[in-house]
UniProtKB/TrEMBL annotation:
The HXXXXD motif is essential for acyltransferase activity and may constitute the binding site for the phosphate moiety of the glycerol-3-phosphate. Its EC number is 2.3.1.51. One of its GO terms (molecular function) is 1-acylglycerol-3-phosphate O-acyltransferase activity. This is 1-acyl-sn-glycerol-3-phosphate acyltransferase. Pathway: Phospholipid metabolism; CDP-diacylglycerol biosynthesis; CDP-diacylglycerol from sn-glycerol 3-phosphate: step 2/3; Lipid metabolism. NCBIfam families: AGP_acyltrn. It comes from Pseudomonas taeanensis MS-3. InterPro entries: AGP_acyltrans, Plipid/glycerol_acylTrfase. Keywords: Acyltransferase, Lipid biosynthesis, Lipid metabolism, Phospholipid biosynthesis, Phospholipid metabolism, Transferase. GO terms for biological process: CDP-diacylglycerol biosynthetic process; phosphatidic acid biosynthetic process. It catalyses: a 1-acyl-sn-glycero-3-phosphate + an acyl-CoA = a 1,2-diacyl-sn-glycero-3-phosphate + CoA.
Amino acid sequence: MLFFLRMLAMAVHFILAGFLGLFLGLSRPFNPDNSRLCARLYSLPALWLLRLKLKTDVESLLAHRSACVIVANHQSNYDLYVLGRVVPHRTVSIGKKSLKWVPFFGQLYWLAGNVLLDRGNALKAKRAMLTTTGTLKHKNTSIWVFPEGTRNLGEDILPFKKGAFQMAIAAGVPIIPVCASSYAKHIRLNRWNSGNIMIRSLPAIPTAGLKLDDLPQLMLDCRAQMQQCINAMDEELARAA
């Protein structure tokens, strides 16, 4: 019963947040800070409705004042509510083109200045990536990417795709990893307290002076750091349980 009531409340919240987000987007279309505000609009009420306790340690992310590429692990559709809590100022994200067909959310996502990629069309995807690189270099706007490209369902991080790291090297901006504990397998939405989640950002990884030949090692190093961080948070949560 509790799960059903929560899902009903979340459906209402999703629609209301979509309407409010659309109003914000129409009021100032493509403003690079729309994503942060909309992320909070979805996240804060949802965390309260779902009774998810979130502990964050993201000083390295919030203290960074210039453009960067933010890479995060991608577990489930609930990432919108969990990771939405820590999206920093002037940050947009990259998503699938199909998102624009999601009622309310898709139109809001577009108006918030996020980048929609047509992964089935290599030429259009490459153009979008070039545009995004220009955004990093000239508009002081950061890009949030899920480099796995799909959900890992709370298991180990999947192999990374190249796009985020190519952008960072091309623009000469650092990469900041953001890690969420493995919550997808552990939250229990049919209980009053659904679960505990930790989010931690790691120190910025510089890319200045790197070339595309350095790309494979950069990806491996970043993935290894993130997996180590996630494992440590999982162990910490297990000890506290």
